[in-house]
Amino acid sequence: MKTISTLLLFFGILVSGYSQNTHVFDFENINDSSFFDFRTNSQDKNIWQIGKPKKNVFVSGQNSQHALVTDTSKSYPVKNVSSFKIHTYGPTSLVRSEVWCTNYILNGYYWVDSDSLSDFGKIEFSIDSGKTYLNLLTDSRALWKTSKPILTGRSKEWKMFAVDLRNFIKVPPYNTRNPIYKFSFISDNIDTKKDGLMFDKLSFCDLQGGLLEYSNNESLTILPNPANETISVQSSKAGRFSLDVYSTEGNNVFRSGEFIRGIDINISALNPGIYELILRNENGQIQSKKRFLKN
Fold it and tell me: CATH for 3-211, among 2.60.40.10, 3.40.50.2300, 3.40.50.300, 2.60.120.200?
């Protein structure tokens, strides 16, 4: 039986006017990594990784160092189905989005190095909160602006893809505020020692509004991020502070006492996932907000 791994990507959106805005994930910005939540329901680790590829064929991102790749150093394993999902809504109840896509445009770059047909990738799309997924490579409603990606065999170079998904907006139940994009790579039982699949410069739809940007979050540092055991939280501001940590469900999972400048937090008991940290001054006013990833 094939093992299944999943990588979830969440990014927050808040209403900030009515201009069109598309965010591109090139995986070079350290802040992008805090939006990734690695989860698996098998004993195998998730083979999707962010980093500089150091493989036989894959050696860099598309005009950059980093990419999202099926393991940055090893060939892909046999009998494996690995996926990552991109949810275009706010990751906590505190920043739940009221923004919707006016045009569903998905584009990016891919490089594939696999056994033809037997090992392959898929790109899927859901507008019913993940209950069903539509295969963009086989569904005739997908309006490809480039050549349709061939996610099997050997592309031998980076290939651009772009698809207009406006036709899917007409599909019931019209839940167009919470689209989910799903990317997968599937291998058979023959080990070909090939590199697998890479994506880079992924961007998702023209949005009515902009990406979430917290004010003054540059004054707050969380190290290391991602982390497993302990994080060190430091504020560049002088004063007395307290902080709260919230899960993606909006649950308060940690509340500190008062501290000056910095505090160390043991996160070993937290479930893997994305958490939001809110820093308050001694009067209870919010000073900064920032996310971290618990591996």
Answer: 2.60.120.200
